[in-house]
Specification:
The structure holds three protein chains of three kinds.
Chain A lengths: L1 H16 L1 H8 L12 H6 L6 H22 L3 E3 L5 E3 L9 H4 L3 H12 L5 H4 L8
Chain B lengths: L1 H21 L17 E3 L10 E6 L5 H14 L29 E4 L1 H4 L10 H5 L2 E4 L7 H5 L5 E3 L5 E3 L9 H5 L6 E2 L23 E2 L5 H4 L6 H5 L4 E5 L6 H8 L2 E2 L11 E4 L1
Parallel strand pairs in B: 2-11
Antiparallel strand pairs in B: 2-9, 3-4, 5-6, 7-8, 10-11
Chain C lengths: L9 H27 L14 H15 L1 H10 L8 H22 L8 H4 L6 H28 L8 H24 L12 H27 L6 H32 L2 H12 L8 H19 L1 H4 L4 H26 L14 H33 L1
Classes of the chains: A mainly alpha, B alpha+beta, C mainly alpha.
Chain lengths: ~130, ~270, ~375
């Protein structure tokens, strides 16, 4: 009886552990959306880091930036590619949103797809959202 | 033998983990394809700087009207919530009633005996009785709040400004107990419903963090004077206390000034011309 | 050994279910606080710490009080404490778990809690408090468990537990000293700014902790076959007696200093607590109740005939325990914040949700204590049987 119990338990455990796969079998998955480059960002072509680096590491870069701005009062970033940026999410022409004009199409599409919910916008404001 | 292997594995894994922790995960400086140029973080060219920022408030020039203007300018531009503001029900449905004791303020008005409780005097000149005294964070030279903070979320910058890192604050409120000037406010709730018009140039705060006057660090970085100075019609001057040639030092030289609770040794950087 | 905990009488299970229900209610109240912020509490800009931190402070004392059985037994070979030492250690475990939970529920951003480890700040007393509290918790779990296990197997405890036991003694003193240092190192708070705060905390801890232990001994005698021993309880009650007298004496010293020196910044707080300030008197009845309870309890324990009375002893202990709880839980924290540094008076009282969360934390601690005591008493019964 003990043996049966253990085996049943194990089967349930394995089934539970593999639940993401079952979930994917019964639901349809979509391809990852491409962030849309609009306006200035489209013509500019050059960001702080190259595209792939940016995709992989933008969160660490932003983390480094916020420490620099808040704690060291450094607000300018002269990138290795020779361009200068304001280390800010949303204030000024030189900030992230200054160039990537549409937050919904640039930030949110990927974040929603990847189901991450960064708390940046709990405090920071997208100037275009305020009318 | 088994035991030995496992032990060795754990040892190596442990050392590897320490090594990982010590080196930064990625280095942006060297991420350029050519590997030659290095990224640099620097201050704005137009930024104002000082060795030790300080403030002089001329109580002779302060009127009720100016006080109101100053508070308004500071609180509006820093998105400080106003609990008297009527909440937009459509945007923030089911907002619970406020507890006014949980208010947030950066700069506000006090009577003399509250601003300077250790200088209370029954024969105090009548003029001072009726004067509005503006109080705010003193940006102390020896800030007890900085000493108390368990995460260095509040810290003293090189130029003497005592600042809050809202990203790092865990909301333990030790700094509020430590501050002898009641300068700090805690966000007992999400402040956004109580901000009439959000100024996108400055972040709002989230619930659960402490906030206070930042001496307009964001303005100084742009080469501009703090909002209170601009709104004060000359009653407030901000400058470098360590520079004998500065305007604040000239004022301190010419006038008799007092500071709040000097005997505690925190060395406030806000002076009041009497 | 843990299997002992899942075999018990109906009463045992009823009690556990009751605790789980209270914990559930506390969790619901906490979820609301977690989503909406500390606005659900009675705390304010002026009184920025309340019931949570007050109960935390009190329970650090209860945890430290466990050392009052460890010192006589391990340092002075006082054999009569042999049977209750484990009870003292397990009480400390339960109390410390409550302490840590109280800190967590008090945080505005509990998710960022580990920032304390990520950015260690050796100038902050909270940093050291975290170290000693976790250290003492760890020590008590290891020591209690290993010693009990050895007893069950009827062998000597492993020799490496000895140095840990000795280490736990300074840790016990340390947790309450550092907790007092949180308060007494703040320049603008006249009520706490006194070098006697740490000794006073320790005195009330060494009264409240053992007093609670005596009450627990009574409960154990009623519900299990294990007898902690009347002699041990008598010795404990003498410890409680002198500790509470020391506590009252220290408070008297405070009262003398503030009233005779007449320095307003120090005097106002005690004035507020004992007599009210500008018509604000919320805590006055509480403080006098506390003083009466502690003083009466001390007298009851001082007179041998009364101390030896088996019906009166738990009552005296309960009086001292609740007296000390009011003193630390209501007076100590609020008293420091009222009046504010700008001499405004904002009174404080906990709200319903705040009390519910507090009860939930207490229920969690009692659940841990119940299970650990179940293990300890059963093992001791087995060994004797």
């Amino acid at each position: 009886m003990n043996k049966n119990l253990i085996i049943t338990g194990l089967v349930i455990f394995v089934l539970a552990v593999l639940s993401p796969f079952w979930f994917n079998i019964v639901t349809t998955t979509q391809a990852a959306p491409e962030p849309e480059l609009l306006g200035k960002a489209k013509t500019e072509k050059k960001c702080v880091l190259d595209k792939y680096d940016m995709r992989a590491n933008h969160m660490s870069l932003l983390d480094e930036w916020r420490d620099a701005v808040v704690r060291d009062a450094d607000r300018q970033y002269d990138a290795a590619n020779g361009k200068s940026f304001g280390m800010s999410l949303s204030t000024g022409e030189n900030s992230c949103l200054g160039c990537h004009e549409d937050k919904a199409k640039f930030c949110d599409t990927c974040h929603t797809y990847a189901s991450v919910d960064p708390y940046c916008w709990d405090c920071h404001t997208n100037p275009k959202e305020i009318e | 033998m088994m035991e030995n292997n496992r032990r060795r594995f754990l040892k190596v894994a442990g050392i590897a983990a320490i090594g990982l922790g010590a080196s930064p995960a990625i280095s942006f400086a060297s991420s350029d394809a050519h590997g030659a140029a290095v990224a640099v973080k620097r201050k704005n060219k137009e930024a104002l700087s000082a060795h030790r920022w300080g403030m002089v408030i001329d109580t002779n020039k302060i009127t009720d009207e100016i006080v109101e203007k100053i508070i308004d300018a500071c609180h509006k531009t820093h998105n400080v919530p106003d609990f008297n503001h009527e909440v937009d029900e459509e945007k923030y449905p089911e907002t619970r009633p406020v507890n006014h004791k949980q208010e947030v303020k950066w700069i506000w008005e006090e009577e003399f005996h509250n601003a300077f409780p250790d200088k209370e005097d029954e024969f105090l000149a009548e003029r001072f009785h009726d004067l509005p005294f503006l109080v705010t964070c003193n940006h102390c030279k020896n800030p007890p709040c900085v000493q108390a903070c368990p995460t260095q979320a509040t810290f003293k910058r090189e130029d003497g400004i005592v600042l809050m890192d809202f990203h790092r604050c865990i909301g333990c409120r030790f700094c509020m107990a430590a501050c002898p000037f009641g300068a700090r406010s805690f966000n007992f709730r999400d402040p956004r419903p109580f901000v009439e018009e959000i100024d996108p140039r400055f972040p709002t705060r989230s619930k659960g963090v402490v906030e206070k006057c930042n001496l307009c660090a964001e303005r100084l970085a742009l080469g501009e004077q703090p909002h209170c100075v601009e709104a004060s019609e000359g009653a407030i001057v901000v400058g470098d206390l360590d520079d004998p040639e500065s305007e604040v030092r000239a004022l301190l030289n010419e006038h008799y000034t007092i500071r709040r609770k000097q005997s505690l040794g925190t060395e406030p950087s806000v002076y009041y011309v009497m | 050994m843990l299997e002992i905990a899942i075999k018990g009488s109906k009463n045992y299970w009823l009690w556990l279910v009751f605790l789980l229900v209270v914990m559930g209610a506390g969790t619901i109240a906490y979820l609301d606080q977690f989503m909406n912020g500390l606005m659900t509490t009675g705390m304010s800009r002026d009184v920025s710490w309340g019931f949570y931190i007050a109960n935390f402070t009190f329970l650090v004392g209860v945890a430290a009080g466990g050392v009052m059985v460890v010192i006589p037994y391990y340092l002075h070979n006082y054999e009569k404490f042999h049977r209750i030492t484990i009870l003292g250690e397990f009480l400390a475990v339960g109390a410390l778990i409550m302490c840590l939970l109280f800190i967590v529920v008090d945080l505005g951003q509990p998710i960022r809690m580990l920032n304390v480890l990520l950015y260690p700040s050796p100038k902050s007393m909270l940093f050291y408090d975290m170290l000693v509290l976790n250290g003492y918790l760890f020590l008590n779990i290891v020591i209690g468990w290993k010693v009990l296990e050895a007893e069950r197997n009827q062998v000597e405890p492993p020799s490496w537990t000895k140095p840990l036991i000795y280490l736990s003694i300074p840790f016990a003193i340390g947790i309450h000293t550092v907790t007092a240092y949180l308060y007494c190192g703040l320049p603008g708070r006249g009520f706490w700014l006194t070098a006697i705060l740490a000794p006073r905390f320790l005195a009330s801890a060494f009264a409240a902790g053992p007093a609670f232990l005596i009450i627990l001994c009574y409960i154990i005698r009623k519900f299990t076959k294990f007898d902690p021993g009347w002699d041990a309880m008598q010795t404990l009650s003498k410890i409680v007696c002198w500790a509470i007298i020391a506590n009252l004496f220290f408070f008297l010293c405070e009262v003398f200093v503030v009233y005779y020196s007449n320095i307003p910044g120090h005097k106002v707080h005690i004035q507020y607590l004992l007599f009210g300030y500008h018509g604000y008197t919320a805590l006055v009845p509480w403080m006098w109740t506390s003083l009466t309870l502690m003083a009466t309890g001390a007298i009851f324990l001082l007179i041998p005939q009364l101390r030896n009375n088996k019906t009166l002893l738990p009552i005296s202990c309960a009086m001292i325990f609740f007296g000390a709880w009011i003193d630390k839980g209501l007076g100590m924290i609020s008293g420091g914040f009222v009046p504010s540094p700008l001499h405004h008076v904002t009174e404080y009282g906990p709200t319903g949700p705040e009390i519910m969360i507090t009860l939930g934390v207490y229920a969690t601690g009692f659940l841990v204590i119940t299970i650990l005591y179940k293990l300890a008493t059963q093992v001791k019964e087995e060994v004797r049987g």
